[in-house]
Amino acid sequence: MSYEIAVDLHLHTSYSDGVLSPKDLVNLCYKNGLKHISVTDHDCTDGIQESIEIAKHIDGLEVIPGIELSSQNEMHILGYYIDFQDMRLQKILSEFKNDRVSRTQETISVLKKLGINIDWNVVKSFAGEGTVGRPHIAKAMISGGYVKSFEEAFDTYLGKDGLAYTGKVKMTPKEAIELIDSVGGVSALAHPTFCMQGDDEESIRIFDETLMELKLYGLKGLEVYYKNYSLEQVSMLKRLAEKNNLICTGGSDYHGNGAADEVLPGLVGPPVEDFLLLGN
Length: 280
Description:
The protein has about 280 residues and is of the alpha/beta class. The protein has 2 domains: about 190 residues, TIM Barrel; about 70 residues, DNA polymerase, domain 1, CATH 1.10.150.650. It is built from 10 helices and 7 strands. Helix 1 crosses helix 2, helix 4 crosses helix 5 and helix 5 packs across helix 6.
């Protein structure tokens, strides 16, 4: 990056599938020179208030209330400046949490049939106060010696094409965008290349049409600066964002799980001038 990284708008805590507590994550971000961050746990806002309270004691660090909503077609919709205490939002998120618990128990049953015996209580212990999910199953599998890494757990068993994958009920991208809008938030499409078939011109054209449709629903931003995106990918996405009048957002998608492609907070993010557009 040819500018100082002061913003990270894609971070996860132990309340969803991250490893660090809100306190440890906020302190890491401050240590790494960030000034504006957003805690965007998956379908969960439980870590936001704690993160905000910690940041109150740190001069020059702002925490923006955020969320990452899962939706159909492998689209994740980020929401910023949300009213995370809204009762309707919390009711919906509670339903998501209950569904995740049911799916986790189902996955454990499927794994048992495959000769992988992990205990529900062990999985829950890895989740701590957070919502139980696949990352915690992966930790239990590693602890039990069934796999050596998160990558192996997800590639072989827990990922979409894995032997023990159990699908979940997801809202449509339209519903996710409208939910964020209804609680005063600003929506952005996360890790957009995950939604693309490839990087050829035809795939880009099709994705551009998708962006135009999402914008009609109320989408305001596109995660242009992400993790380890190449300069070519950033350039392509920036061009699409400008064409569709979308704000260029970005972040590390930091989980703290030691994955091979993990990027620390402070190494990737949007320019401050792009970030400021979110609050306008």
